[in-house]
C-alpha cells in the first residue's frame, strides 16, 4: 500500500514538473517584455475568442494588447511547445503519439499588419535545446507574415544542433499561429 501511494505521489510530481501544468498567462516575464522591450505603459491583455474551426489543438491563447501609450503591438499569442526529454523521443511524431515530452512556454507579438514583431521564450522547462531561447536566434522570426514564404528550418530558419525537436516545434507553431491570427482578423 505504501509503495502504491509513493508511486502515485512521484507520478503526480513528475506530471506537474514536466509540462502537464497550465501555462501561466500572468508570468512576470510577459508584462516585463511588454513594458521594457515594447515601451508600453500599463499594458492590458484581452483574450481573443476564436471560432472553433480556428482554435482546435491550441496549447495557448491569443490576446488583444492595449496600452496607455501608442504602440504598434496589437496582438499576442502565449503558448506552449512540446520538446523531448533526453532520450525520450527520437522523432517529432512521438510527441503526438503519447511520447514523453518536456515543454517551453513562449510569446509572439504581432503588429497592426499581423507581422511578427517579437518572439520570446519565457519558461523553458526542457533539459535540452535551450539554444532556442537565444534572442539572436529568435530574431529570425521578426517580420514574418503568412504572405511571406513559409518558415522552413534549414532554409530561412537556422537549425541548431542538439535542439532539433525544439527548433522544429517552435518554427511550426509560430507559422501556425501567424496563419490563425491572420485568418481570424481577415474575417473580422
At a glance:
The protein has helices at 2-20, 28-37, 93-96, 135-138, 164-187; strands at residues 44-47, 60-66, 73-84, 101-111, 116-124. The protein has 188 residues and is α+β, with helices and mostly antiparallel strands. It is globular and about 40 Å long.
- What is the element string, with H for helices and E for strands? HHEEEHEEHH
Beginning-to-end CA distance, first to last residue? 58 Å
Measured as a percent range, the helix fraction is: 25-40%
Q: State the low-pLDDT regions, or none.
A: 2-19, 93-99
Mean pLDDT: 81
Rg from Cα: 18 Å
Q: Report the strand count.
A: 5
* Count of DSSP-assigned helices: 5
The assembly state of the depicted protein chains is: single chain
**Main pleated sheet:** 5 strands, antiparallel
Structural class estimated from helices and strands: alpha+beta
Beta-strand residue percentage: 15-25%
Shape descriptor reads globular
Estimate nothing, just give the exact number of structural domains. Answer: 1
* Strand neighbour order, sheet with most strands: 1-2-3-4-5
Amino acid at each position: 500500500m505504501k509503495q502504491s501511494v509513493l508511486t502515485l505521489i512521484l507520478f503526480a510530481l513528475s506530471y506537474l514538473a514536466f509540462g502537464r501544468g497550465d501555462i501561466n498567462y500572468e508570468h512576470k516575464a510577459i508584462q516585463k517584455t511588454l513594458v521594457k522591450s515594447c515601451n508600453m505603459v500599463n499594458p492590458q491583455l484581452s483574450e481573443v475568442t476564436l471560432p472553433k474551426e480556428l482554435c482546435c489543438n491550441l496549447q495557448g491563447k491569443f490576446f488583444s494588447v492595449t496600452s496607455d501609450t501608442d504602440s504598434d503591438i496589437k496582438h499576442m499569442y502565449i503558448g506552449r511547445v512540446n520538446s523531448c526529454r533526453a532520450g525520450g523521443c527520437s522523432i517529432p511524431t512521438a510527441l503526438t503519439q503519447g511520447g514523453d515530452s518536456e515543454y517551453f512556454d513562449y510569446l509572439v507579438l504581432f503588429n497592426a499588419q499581423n507581422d511578427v514583431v517579437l518572439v520570446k521564450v519565457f519558461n523553458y522547462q526542457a533539459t535540452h535545446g535551450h539554444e532556442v531561447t537565444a534572442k539572436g536566434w529568435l530574431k529570425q522570426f521578426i517580420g514574418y507574415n503568412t504572405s511571406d514564404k513559409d518558415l522552413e528550418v534549414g532554409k530561412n530558419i537556422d537549425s541548431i544542433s542538439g535542439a532539433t525537436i525544439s527548433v522544429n516545434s517552435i518554427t511550426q507553431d509560430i507559422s501556425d499561429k501567424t496563419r490563425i491570427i491572420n485568418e481570424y482578423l481577415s474575417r473580422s
